[in-house]
Amino acid sequence: MTSPLRIGVAGLGTVGVGVLQILEGHAGLLADRAGRPLVAAAVSARERNRDRGVDLSAVRWYDDPTAMAADPEIDVVVEAIGGSDGVARAVCEQAIASGKSVVTANKALLALHGEGLARAAEAKGVSLAYEAAVAGGIPIIKGLRDGLAANRVSTVFGILNGTCNYILTEMRDSGREFGEVLADAQRLGYAEADPSFDVDGVDAAHKLTLLAGLAFNGLADFDTLHVEGIRHVSALDIAFADELGYRIKLLGIAHRLAEGVELRVHPCMVPAGAPIAMVEGVFNAVVAKGDFVGEVMMVGPGAGRGPTASAIVADLVDLARGFAAPTLGTPARGLERLVPVPMDRRRGAYYVRLMVVDRPGVIADVTRLLRDEDISMESFLQHGRAPGDAVPVVMTTHETAEAAMRRALEAIGALDAVLEPPRMIRIETLAA
Amino acid sequence: MTSPLRIGVAGLGTVGVGVLQILEGHAGLLADRAGRPLVAAAVSARERNRDRGVDLSAVRWYDDPTAMAADPEIDVVVEAIGGSDGVARAVCEQAIASGKSVVTANKALLALHGEGLARAAEAKGVSLAYEAAVAGGIPIIKGLRDGLAANRVSTVFGILNGTCNYILTEMRDSGREFGEVLADAQRLGYAEADPSFDVDGVDAAHKLTLLAGLAFNGLADFDTLHVEGIRHVSALDIAFADELGYRIKLLGIAHRLAEGVELRVHPCMVPAGAPIAMVEGVFNAVVAKGDFVGEVMMVGPGAGRGPTASAIVADLVDLARGFAAPTLGTPARGLERLVPVPMDRRRGAYYVRLMVVDRPGVIADVTRLLRDEDISMESFLQHGRAPGDAVPVVMTTHETAEAAMRRALEAIGALDAVLEPPRMIRIETLAA
Question: Any CB–CB contact under 8 A between B24 and chain A?
Fold first, then answer.
């Protein structure tokens, strides 16, 4: 098969243009590697007459990307529009309906509508590829689908959002608070004007849904994920974490248990010596545990034009070579729905920070409420004294159940001497 | 295509049995993922009547693995015999000649005879797969070949030998010398009775040859590699490295320059904060730099039954799915021979340790000889005094050329007051 793979690129923002740059700049290299040329045959974007730094003179232009997706002279559509619905979804559906494979970086679309798209692709015998949708340039989708194909995967977790990791790293390096660092990140282009998708954990949760589906060969319902972001992590927590030998990371965790699957995104304290604790700034990292391979970690740039386009073009090379694997690793018709384990059932250790009035008896009250829930304390920290004033105190617990922890925190929060809602961060030792 | 992939396993040692265990234990999972069953159809080993803990009753037995490799009822041969020549080579050649794909973990065979095997496989239209040959369970071959296929790779380097990394880690943790830790490693099964392949860097060099071939889509001649092992690394060097903010790692480095390719295996000092510095014990790690993706690192178990078998079976899943890519990423007929850059041309910083008589003027002589070669010193360490006795002194240099460094070390070694041959370790800042 030496006829060119004819590619239509829908959306010419950062990512779409990056794809065109690689196709143009590495045309020879890609043809050698794929065994046939990869050719940008058509593009679609909103504004035709903007200079994007790539030569579009030999490429068909479409104002309507959905019309492009039906073009019989195109073999595969790269969806680089974004958004979980609307045009992006219509383009993917049209492409599949027209018998074309789809390559996308759109985690929101796939997390919410991936099942339907996967079934449609399977029915049409085309591929739905999404290496770029998770962890940017890190080839984790192929890593799980192909590289670890011999394993039953028990756990996959990682740093899936570079914006959050950048903010947490900066907070630690500078001692500043979340809001200030976020504002900086926005100025530097590491965070969006509306940062909520990133900092509230939604983006990481989209990616976790895809990882879990692939790792466990099942269908994860996005709605069942437990999702917390990093807005409540304070400079104080980061300093205490350091003192206790931990780093705070926003992790997405998919963990298979006998009774179902834990799927959760939240700030975690991980041991400072754990490899994943050392992944800093905008980098992403994913750890997978397989029953034969053990633990494998992949680290790399989680976003940006180059890494995202690299992942998309890798999918195009797969398609050009004729590599076709089911969207979630096994045929969609045989996939089971993953049974979510409620967050209340999580077992593990906890970090708790309280702002209390510094007076005799307060800690006795707090520890009694923990004991009432059978929670045993592992460490306790209070620095300095301020009799009669507010002071932060920090505790870590031994392993306990989340439900017990929540009840205890509610009771503790109701104490007169406890001046703010208690802050809790889960301690995760599963982190590689 | 739903007919089974019929597999013949040549060699039933640790790895061969591991492959059979996965094929048996994950039969359903693998069939789902590959779209067809993967079946162990035949095996061959020296001793038939040994209990290996796997059921061989339904599997054809061959005393002669080369005869098995010609069996028309087999689609693919797993070569798990080992050794760069002899039976292993004959089995692979026979399998390819009989139109079967080959899966092997045999880096020695591929580093020395890979070119011929790759050409033969290509001529016959079969695959030569070797995910398990480099970095054990880490899917780095697929990572480079598929995951980073959109990139021109400029550098690939890593910790490629778990035995050496284990020994270096143990030396640092315990303060003990190489010989002692090696003996322990042999007792624990982390080192062979004859450890020279590992500790002299040969095994890492075999793997580096394969990585370079794939990363650069070229043919690397094993004979042209610069290879040093870790026998000369002393507890003293490790302690000084710590003090200077470095870790000592045996790295394999493939680095593309305008004039050719650096291919070298030697102990390196890497910054203690670099991600690769934190890869400890028997773990392996590989870093690749691509022009679009940036830097990606993969970490995982570098050896052992489970990880090696995991990688082999991943290759079998590829074959069952019909994934076939050229052995070195592009067709063998178009591969260029990589031009080696002589080691003398290496530019970088150096760590030098001398054992000198502690008397006035010695350091002046040493620094004069460095200056004569235009080498500028970055730091100098001497702890304590022992007038008239032998003391270790340590220097690090700014960037200089290896040739100049060698001339300087020769002249320094010839000084009366220098009691032992100078020890030199290269400082590598390219390490991620």
Answer: no
